[in-house]
Each structure stands twice: as structure tokens, then as C-alpha cells.
Write a structure and sequence with these properties.
32% of the residues lie in helices and 21% in strands. The chain is an alpha/beta fold and 492 residues long. The structure holds flavin-adenine dinucleotide.
Length: 492
């Protein structure tokens, strides 16, 4: 993959496109942020886009559902001030005024107490480790921020680097729990490039940003962004087919050009249990899949063993997220990282400590976050009741007053493509956007690197791949227009 892509955020330019060459039929699989953004750019460039989405709603991992008179994400979401591509997209869509920046309250739960963890002063007050280690933690974080060449960090694990530079105590209290929380049994294999992304790219440790952190959230939830993108696609003549999972991509003469779509309701089943659907009428000039790699390998039958191995070489952690509607606030913290090895979840995210309960008819919402290996971790398959029973005594360690009586509603959501596992040498395993099948493109979170995946980077990804599809379509149109003339030139 080309590094230049990482900084390319321009929308498609049609200014140089020869008249009559732009309008092509493009299928996009997935109405997550990447698929919607690509659909927006491609319809704007004049292409006829049909977007197929498995789920009966928009937004993928950033999808929402109705709660307390408004909507809320199934998985906790916020933006960092460094998430400029998404901010720019919102402005372009005319919804820039819907993004509000809120002061964040981050904390760490360690040795039975909550520590604030936003500013350098908070770090100095983090008495869970000796003062000398706190100072070292601050200095090394600054040093890591100054490293510009992430490639030099790619071959070393985050665990090795962090133990060596931050020291064992800082690792045990801060970085170890974070890495284990995200990657579970794979924690010791995660590349330092991933941790560097968190340290160096997320927020400014200069100027105003050093003393307080602001987090962005769209007034009315991520649905505002999802819907604005969908409206822009349809107003440019595109169509979005929800509850329409693609079960097979069918090549003809070596080019991907048709799709099969399952009957409505198939989203309730895991992809391995989907039956083959009906062939969708019409041929496509290009097909862009923004689905996870494990779905892609399942719905494209003609992949070479080599390419299949490349895609399955990147594993994902699944997210298991419990959302509680609660009567009282659990703590004053919005985002509480859990740094106690025996607590069976990794974070408590009290959404209504970022956004006032007033936005939710006075109701309060708490997410209990977990990343697990779905095949080996028993939490993944537990019933909602069993999961809650498992969590309850540990939530009470954070606030002993918490009880079942506090709970008004409970949901559990599971996402299997939540976090690609970024191991050493990852850049060598990133698949290209162009797949080995002509006309077929892949754009998913496994290609986001060295940044950690997030909606901002799916916006960027959608834009990069839309540009590529557009350019390829232009080039093939041009080749067709020119072909007879080239023959004339060759055979005078
Ligand atoms: C627990 C959690 C917390 C997060 N927190 C944040 C946060 O705070 N801030 C942030 O910016 N990001 C956050 N993210 C990450 C962010 O949500 C994702 O990186 C981003 O939304 C991915 O978008 P995408 O379009 O690339 O992929 P996806 O959202 O995964 O979209 C892929 C789409 O393809 C669809 N699909 C799958 N198979 C088929 C098929 N066969 N046919 C048709 N459609 C199909 C899926 O239903 C889905 O809609 C979080 C994610 C999780 C899981």
C-alpha cells in the first residue's frame, strides 16, 4: 500500500474528467462510515451508486438505536481533536454546527480507587506508582510523541518497548492493562507502532490541549452523520438498500460485476449460516466491499489461496459491550480505564458524563466495554443475565452503592470486526485496495495503520478508495474510447 494515501483527504476531483466518461454503475457493500463516505464521493462524481447494507440501519459500528426520545450508539463513540477528516466532512455536509466539543473526564481505576487521568498534573498525582515512575511516564510519553518514523517501531512489541522505556511499574499500572484490555491473549504480540499511534497521533500535548482534553460528539448522536451522508447519496441519485446482505460477488470474464443478495432478515444469522441469495438485476462496472475481511473471503468464491491467506493473516478482536440505562451516576468520570487485572471488563464509559442526561429526558447511560477472542473467551457467548451477574460485583468495586435496583434497561451488543490485531511487521500484511479480481476493491479497518481504527479514519479510507475507483473507471472509459483510434494508428 502506498504511504502517500495516508495523507490524502481531498474529495474526488471531476474537473479534469472528459465529458461523458464519468457515469458508471458502482456497487458498494456496507453502509458503515467508509461505505457511506465512498458512496457520497462517488455519487458526487457522477457515478450511479447502489449501496447494499446487511443491517436494517445505517452506520455499521457507528450505528445507533432509539433511546429516551433520541438515539444513541450501540458502541460508545467520541471524536478527538485530531480527527480532522470527519470534522471536515461534517462541515462539507452542512452539519458542522452539530458537532460539540465537551471537556473530557478520563480516569484510571487502580488499587481500588479512581484516579483522574487527563492532564500532566493528574499524572503527577497518580500515586498508584512511585513519583520517579510518574515523572518517567511523562517524559517518555513526550519522547514517544517526538518519534516521527513509526516504521522504526514496527518490529518491536509494545509490551517490550513500554517495559523497557516506561519501566515495569508504569507498564503494569497504565499500558499493560490498556493493551491487554484491547487485545487479550494477543497483548504480548501487539506492535509498538499501534501504541505509538495512541501516544503521538491522538491529542496535542502542546498549548491549550495540554491542560484539558476536549472530545467531540454530534448533537443527536452519530445518526446525524450517517443520515446526512445517506441523504447526500440519494440526493445525487444513489440508492441505499438496507437489510440486503450480499452473499456472493460474481465475476464474469474475470471481472467482478454482479452480486447476489440474501432475503431480508439474514442479518440475524452469522455470515457462515447465510444461504446464497438472488442475483441482483444489473451489472456493475466496479464493486467496492467495505465489509470485514472474514466476510469478504466468504462472499468472493474465486480468490487465490495466497490472497485468502493474506486476508486471514489479520485477526480481529470482538467487542462485547453492555449498555445500561441507570438511575444514578456511577462516578464523575466519563471514560474509566480499568487497570485491575482481576476485573473482567476493560472500561466503564458513562456517556452521560460527557453529554448531559438532559439530552436523554434525564436518563443516564453507562457502557461496560470489553474486547475478547470470540472463540476462546466465555464472556462472548454468555446470556445477558449471566454477563451482568459476572460484572456486578466488579462494578460495585468502583461504586459500592451500585446495585441491580439502579438498572432501568440493559442491552448487550457484539461486534466481531471491532479491532484488527496489529502485530509486528503489520505494514507488510495490509491488503491493497485493488483486489486480484478486476473491478473489485476492498476497504476495511485492517488497512488503517499506523493510526488506530476510528470513524475519522474510515472517512479518510472511504475517500481514498472512492478516488481510486473513480480514477480506474475514468482510465477504463478512456481506454475504450481510444481503442479504435489506437488500432487505426497501429494498422495504417
Ligand atoms: C466498541 C467500539 C467503540 C468504538 N469507539 C469509537 C470512538 O469512540 N470513536 C471513533 O471514531 N470510532 C470508534 N470505534 C470505531 C469505529 O466505529 C469504526 O472504526 C468505524 O465505524 C468502522 O467503519 P467502517 O465503515 O470501516 O466499518 P463498519 O462500520 O464495520 O462497516 C461495515 C458495514 O458492512 C456491513 N456488512 C457486513 N457484511 C455485509 C454484507 N455481506 N453485505 C452488505 N453489508 C455488509 C456491516 O453491517 C457494516 O455496516 C469504535 C468501535 C467499537 C466496536
Amino acid at each position: 500500500m502506498n504511504d502517500d494515501n495516508l495523507s490524502m483527504t481531498d474529495t474526488i476531483s471531476t474537473a479534469s474528467a472528459p465529458a461523458g466518461l464519468t457515469a458508471k454503475n458502482v456497487a458498494i457493500l456496507g453502509a458503515g462510515i467508509a461505505g457511506l463516505t465512498a458512496g457520497y464521493d462517488l455519487t458526487k462524481a457522477g457515478h450511479r451508486v447502489t449501496l447494499f447494507e446487511k443491517w436494517p440501519g445505517l452506520g455499521g459500528q457507528a450505528s445507533t438505536f432509539p433511546v429516551a426520545g433520541t438515539r444513541l450508539e450501540r458502541y460508545y463513540h467520541h471524536l478527538f481533536t485530531s480527527d480532522r477528516d470527519e470534522v471536515q466532512l461534517m462541515e462539507e455536509l452542512g452539519i458542522g454546527d452539530k458537532l460539540t466539543w465537551h471537556e473530557s473526564k478520563m480516569g484510571i481505576f487502580r488499587q481500588g480507587r479512581i484516579y483522574n487521568f487527563v492532564t500532566p498534573i493528574d499524572l503527577l498525582k497518580f500515586t498508584a506508582i512511585p513519583l520517579i515512575d510518574r515523572l518517567r511516564a511523562g517524559l517518555i510519553a513526550l519522547y514517544a510523541q517526538r518519534i516521527k518514523d513509526w516504521r522504526s517501531l514496527e518490529q518491536i512489541t509494545a509490551a517490550t518497548w513500554a517495559r523497557r522505556y516506561f519501566g515495569e511499574k508504569v507498564y503494569a499500572a497504565i499500558w499493560g492493562p490498556l493493551i491487554r484490555g484491547k487485545f487479550g491473549d494477543y497483548a504480548e504480540q501487539v506492535s509498538m507502532a499501534w501504541l505509538w499511534g495512541k501516544l503521538a497521533l491522538r491529542r496535542s500535548l502542546k498549548g491549550e490541549g495540554i491542560m484539558k482534553e476536549k472530545l467531540g460528539y454530534p448533537d443527536g448522536s452519530w445518526e446525524v452523520i450517517n443520515q446526512a451522508l445517506a441523504d447526500a447519496i440519494t440526493s445525487h441519485g444513489g440508492r441505499i438498500l438496507l437489510d440486503s446482505p450480499v452473499t456472493c460477488i460474481l465475476p464474469e470474464n474475470g471481472r467482478a460485476c454482479r452480486v447476489e443478495v440474501a432475503a431480508p432478515g439474514a442479518w440475524r444469522l452469522p455470515p457462515e449460516e447465510w444461504e446464497r441469495g438472488e442475483v441482483f438485476p444489473g451489472r456493475f462496472d466496479a464493486i467496492l466491499a467495505t465489509v470485514p475481511s472474514f466476510v469478504f473471503t466468504q462472499i468472493v468464491p474465486d480468490l487465490s489461496v495466497e490472497y485468502r491467506n493474506l486476508l486471514s493473516g489479520v485477526q480481529y478482536q470482538s467487542a462485547v459491550v453492555m449498555l445500561l440505562q441507570i438511575k444514578h451516576s456511577l462516578s464523575p468520570i466519563y471514560w474509566l480505564n480499568i487497570a485491575e487485572p482481576d476485573i473482567p471488563f476493560v472500561g466503564l464509559i458513562e456517556h452521560t458524563n460527557l453529554i448531559s442526561p438532559e439530552a436523554y429526558e434525564g436518563k443516564r447511560f453507562l457502557y461496560i466495554a470489553n474486547y475478547v477472542d470470540k472463540d476462546t473467551n466465555p464472556l462472548y457467548g454468555m446470556s445477558n443475565e449471566a454477563l451482568f451477574e459476572t460484572y456486578l460485583p466488579h462494578i460495585q468495586r468502583v461504586n459500592p452503592e451500585f446495585s441491580q435496583e439502579w438498572i432501568e434497561k440493559l442491552w448487550v451488543f457484539r461486534e466481531d470486526a471491532a479491532q484488527p490485531i496489529i502485530t509486528c511487521g503489520y505494514s507488510q500484511r495490509i491488503p491493497d485496495y485493488r483486489t486480484p479480481i478486476a473491478g473489485l476493491y476492498l476497504a476495511n479497518t485492517t488497512q488503517i495503520y499506523p493510526e488506530d481504527r476510528g470513524t475519522n479514519y474510515s472517512v479518510r479510507l472511504g475517500r481514498i478508495v472512492a478516488q481510486l475507483v473513480h480514477e480506474d473507471l475514468q482510465a477504463s472509459s478512456l481506454a475504450k474510447v481510444m481503442a479504435p483510434h489506437i488500432q487505426e494508428i497501429e494498422t495504417p
